[in-house]
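CATEGORY: protein folding

GOAL: derive structure tokens
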Amino acid sequence: MRRKLLIGFAVMLGLAVVLPNLSPAQNDNTGSAETTKEYRGPLPAHFGKLGMSDTQKEKVYSLQESYEEQLEKLRKQIEQIEQKRDAEIETLLTPGQKLRLQELREEAAKEAAESQAIPNAPAVGNF
């Protein structure tokens, strides 16, 4: 058991050293001080591979920002509709089913909290 933990730790340490060097650059710049700009989020899927000019990228970012307010309103609206739907569905449940649903939700929340407490810990025995 202890040997497995040590091996797991060694593997994680090795990955921590190697992986940062394998990640692709976030922009096409050479990295000089004058060309380094503030990161504004990702371009849409596959657009980063098109060799777009800085002007084109700025226009894309501007368009994304102009639509963000509308998109956020729609996200909130969707969330409200989903909550209303779920509330209506729950009215169909018996008292026993409602109680069991609450228990299942509490278990899921507890498991999620536990998995976030130690985000990079390896599962014991799963090396």
